[in-house]
Specification:
Layout: H1 46-49, H2 54-60, H3 64-78, H4 95-105, H5 127-139, H6 144-184, H7 188-201, H8 205-211, H9 217-228, H10 245-258, H11 266-277
Helix pairs in contact: 7-9, 10-11
């Protein structure tokens, strides 16, 4: 007789329940918050945490390696030599250290070795002043690139000053022309020619032209008055030297005829004419 018995399946009431995912520690449905990993900046002191640039720093450096690289880059810029960078000059630097520093910085060996490739064609520099300028730049350890930039700026400033001077001269010349045309009227061209002849006769025309003084009304007034008071040979008229009074009276009368009625020189000429007639 078969006495084998078949074990009845465990009832649902007797089965060991599977762990509930919601009760599993750290489960995705757990009510407990997941632990946040510690920050590199946790525990920063108050001085650092309150620094104005701290927030920006935290956004750039988040671990030890980043901090170390930042430090090494900074050291290379301030001249530490451990990584082969440039050591700055100090009061205790030897001549060899100074020469090495200048070589690495691109500073020429001597002040006379500076080169300026941007000098405009035809431009001439005062060699004495240039030598003084180069010596000062070399003393300040200005490298070749900086020197070229400074000289380019110098050239721009010179051109600007030159343009301003030309503009001022043009304004002065136009102002003088307007005023003299109002005074001399139709005789403007003739009187200008007379003033130019006086300047040339006395050897000052070239200087007046170079300096721009020829464009100023007081200068032209003086030259024209000199023309009125001199003979063709440049001798100043003087009644005490026995010259012909009749000729002077004729000359003054002609001048009065040429000048506008309201010209400021008419009174003086009239007085002189009255004195000659007396």
């Amino acid at each position: 007789m078969d006495t084998t018995t078949t074990e009845a399946p465990a009832s649902a009431d007797n089965a060991t329940p599977a762990p509930d995912a919601a009760q599993t520690s750290g489960g995705i449905l757990s009510d407990a918050p997941a632990e946040t990993p510690p920050s590199f900046w946790d525990g920063a002191g108050d001085d650092l945490a309150n620094h104005a640039g701290f927030d920006g720093l935290k956004g750039k450096i988040n671990d030890r390696d980043a901090l170390a690289i930042s430090y090494l880059n900074l050291q290379s810029k301030i001249g530490q030599r451990e990584d082969g960078s440039i050591k700055p000059i100090t009061e205790d630097s030897t001549p060899e250290e100074i020469a090495e520093y200048r070589e690495k910085m691109g500073v020429p060996a001597t002040a006379g070795d500076y080169q300026w490739e941007g000098m405009p064609e035809g431009m001439e520099l005062d060699t004495e002043r240039l030598a003084e300028r180069n010596a000062k730049m070399h003393e300040l350890d200005i490298n070749q690139k900086q020197y070229s930039a400074l000289m380019d700026m110098y050239n721009q400033e010179v051109n600007m000053i030159h343009d301003m001077a030309q503009s001022n001269q043009a304004n002065v010349m136009q102002k003088t022309k307007t005023e003299l045309e109002a005074e001399w009227g139709a005789n403007y061209g003739k009187n200008i020619d007379a003033a130019a002849r006086v300047a040339e006769r006395f050897g000052v025309k070239e200087v007046l032209m170079e300096t721009g003084l020829i464009n100023h009304k007081p200068i032209l007034d003086l030259l024209y008055k000199t023309h009125l008071s001199t003979n063709a040979d440049g001798v100043v008229k003087n009644p005490d030297q026995g010259y012909n009074r009749t000729n002077e009276k004729k000359a003054i009368q002609q001048q009065l005829n040429d000048l506008p009625y309201a010209h400021k020189d008419r009174d003086g000429l009239m007085k002189r004419l009255v004195a000659l007639r007396g």
